[in-house]
């Protein structure tokens, strides 16, 4: 019988199993309101920490993506019909959790004529209406690279708009489905030119060089990005892109310091960092 490959995680990548009263509260709430989170769908290693803090990143437009990126754990298939009651349920869950800051993301919905942009705008406005005073970060897909569509997101009023480049330019075509490195930079630049606080992130451990990491930082700064996240890539399964290297925490710290020296207002860099990790702090970036 063929043996399965076993990935031995270094000590700095190991986290305790999620548990605790607040963890159970968030878990039960998402199940009660039939909501999805990228915490679960993306198999995030920080789920226990974040849910115990009473926070979660809600994922709208279902849990099935029309793209099949080689790094992502979200299921790729033909999505179900749009549930127009979902914005209200998300808003209510945020109210029950008494969140002061929330993060919303979504799957890609290339099956929809507008890529889901109208649904996004409705969700943002509904959350703001039900939760006056709440601040919000939205982690958005590329909406078929129609830059003018982004105005609907901007007009809805989120405080931070995030879109990830995911990796360095050379590796991007090998792991991303339909999205492109340059297309993501154009999106971020468009948003920045509109006066939005923009955020982006990428993963280490896919075979990138230090020079490529530095170039990615420079490209993001040139696009006006103010908040940067850098984390370790973890393959969700044997079918995904294999990890090349587990990057040491000291390297992440070096990149954090370098990013700050390049003019990013906030840099979250560490092996366990994911896009929405400590997002409540990023709202302070100027």
Describe the structure.
It is a single chain. Helix 6 links the parallel strand 6 and strand 7. The protein has one domain: Aldolase class I (TIM Barrel), CATH 3.20.20.70. Helix 4 runs parallel beside helix 5 and helix 5 runs parallel beside helix 6. It is α/β, with parallel strands linked by helices and 286 residues long. The chain is globular, with a radius of gyration of 18 Å. Strands 1-2-5-6-7-8-9-10 form an 8-stranded mixed sheet. It has a two-stranded parallel ribbon with strand order 3-4. The chain starts with 20 loop residues before the first helix and ends with a helix. The protein is 36% helix and 15% strand.
Question: Which CATH architecture?
Answer: Alpha-Beta Barrel
Total of domains: 1
Q: Could you name the CATH topology?
A: TIM Barrel
Alpha-carbon distance between the termini?
57 Å
Share of helix, binned: 25-40%
Provide the residue-averaged pLDDT.
Answer: 87
Please report which band the strand proportion falls in: under 5%, 5-15%, 15-25%, 25-35%, 35-45% or over 45%.
Answer: 5-15%
Order of helices and strands: HEHHEEEHEHEHEHHEHEHEH
CATH class membership: Alpha Beta
Side-by-side strand order of the widest sheet? 1-2-5-6-7-8-9-10
- Poorly predicted sequence stretches spanning 5 or more consecutive residues: 1-6
Largest sheet, described in full? 8 strands, mixed
Classified in CATH, the superfamily is Aldolase class I
Radius of gyration: 18 Å
Structural class by secondary-structure content: alpha/beta
Number of strands: 10
Q: What's the total helix number?
A: 11
Q: What coarse outline follows from CA principal-axis ratios?
A: globular
